[in-house]
Every structure is written in structure tokens, then in C-alpha cells.
Amino acid sequence: MSWIDLHMHSVFSNDGDFTPEELVEKCQKAGIRLMAIADHNSCKAVQAEMAEAKKRGLSCISAIELDCSYGDVDLHVLGYGIDASNSRFAELEENLADEERASSAPRLQMMKERGLVIDEKKAYDLAHYGYVTGEVIAEVALADPRNDGHPMLKEYRPGGSRSDNPYVNFYWDWCAKGKEIYIPIHFISLQEAIDLIRSSGGVPVLAHPGNNVKEKDELLDGILKCGIEGIEVYSTYHSPEQEKYYRKKANDYHLAITCGSDFHGKTKPSIKLGVMDCDGEEDRIVEGLRGLGIKF
To answer: CB of 141 within 8 A of CB of 181?
Structure first.
């Protein structure tokens, strides 16, 4: 367990379950003293998070998690210490929301063509902001007894190989880029994400690279040279070997290191707040963030 968690999601993400106030309360109960809500392409949680954290005596950092692309690889870049009032964040959020809403109907249709029974009303009732994600489809389909025995869902049911985080695993296996039911969404480039974060006074940090960059030296080196200033070394997605690899990369490039659980709630039930083992490097994390001018 760590007393720092700089990556979690509120209801302002399309897959988060808790309000900013609820997340601050949960962090306090979990013993977290420094937190950051980094919602997907949204900083709407920041003001409420700051106010609630102040009331409860917690420190927090304004943050966002931007979807972006580098070549043919989709990435997540965290922006820490941002000015959440920057109107460009709101514009980006709405543009992506329009694309996500438009992708819902074809995604549902492709699932149905594979024999899944999906109650569309339930799906849209569960959807945040009117777009039906792969996670929402998994939740509705797995709860519907008409899908009992469907081979597409076997590994996400209790005891299955992907049952630890069934909803998001379903998304990654079926709806992510390169998968069978992928609907293209046009993300900004990595350079545009870095420039946007910097223009708002923030620091760009590469999120959970073990999830999509893996340990591909040439790919990671190219990404880091674009202006990344930190790496999320300690993540619930990283093995000890990956932590060692990314810590060395951070050292080689003189970058800050950060940590984050990527807590969502029911979408990723096996992930708890602050569960990362940071190898006792919390003080180094704090020192590195302050060295980059982030105030908390």
C-alpha cells in the first residue's frame, strides 16, 4: 500500500463510479495523503476535489488523463498541475464525446451480429453522457440470462481467465484498437497532448506504459523524446520486472516517477485505491513532482 495515489477516475470519466467528493472520502479512509483525480479527457472533477480535500486535510494535484496517439499506438498521458479552467480541455472533451456517442450504435450492432443479446435501454441507462462503451456492453450482457453459455462471455464469468476485471477486460479483448469490434475514435497526437498540458501550466507524464507500450525500447524512446517529463512507474498493471524497467528509463532520461492505481470502481473491481507497492519511493515521487513546479 502507498500513501500516494495519483491516478483515479470519478463519474466525469465515462467509466468511473464515484463523485469527486466520494473519492476524497475513500482516499482518506484508505490512508492516502496525496491524491489526484485524473479523469479521461476531463478536468470537471478538479474544483470539487480540491474543496473536499481541503476540508478533510488531504493534499491533491489537479490532473487529467488525455487519450492520444503516437503513430499507430494509442496512449494515455497524464497532465499534473494543470489549469483546469483552460477552455481547450472542455473543447477536447466535447469533441471526443460526440465521437463516442456516434460509435455506440455500430458497436451495439456488431455485438448483436455475434449473437449477444443486449438490452439497449439498460445499456443506455448505464452509459455516461450517452455513449455505450465496451465495458457497459459487458455489464449488460453478462447480467442477461439469455447470454448464458455464450462462448464470447465465458472467460469473463466467475472462474474465467479474465474474470478479475471482467468489464474492462472485455473492452480490451474485443473493442480496443486492433480488436474485432474496434470503432475508430480520432484522438489528438501525443505531441498535441503534451503541448496542451504544457500550455495549461501542467507536466505531461506517460501513464501505465506496460499496458500499451510494453518494453519496446525504440517505441518508448521515441515517446519520451517528444517531451514527456515523467513516467507512471508504479501501476497496478505493472509487474516488478516492468517497474524495474520503467524506473531505469526514468533515471536514464532524468524524468520524474509517479504512481497510480487507475481506480474506477465496478469497471475494475480488483483495483483498490493505493494498492501499488512503491518500494518506499514516495518521498522521491514527492520531490520529483515539486522539482517540476507542481504545487500541492
So the answer is: no
The one-character DSSP state at 223 is H
pLDDT 10s digits, 4-47: 999 999 999 989 999 999 999 999 999 999 999 999 999 999 99
* 3-class secondary-structure state, position 52: helix
Q: In whole angstroms, what is the distance from residue 8 CA to residue 235 CA?
A: 11
For domain 4-93+190-291, the CATH architecture is Alpha-Beta Barrel (3.20)
Kindly indicate the confidence band of residue 128, based on its pLDDT and cuts at 50, 70 and 90: confident
d(CA 78, CA 193): 9
**Residue type present at position 19:** T
Type of residue at 218: E
CATH 3.20.20.140 placement within the chain: 4-93+190-291
> How far apart, in whole angstroms, are the C-alpha atoms of residue 123 and residue 121?
5
Instruction: Kindly state the DSSP code that residue 187 receives in the 8-state scheme.
Output: P
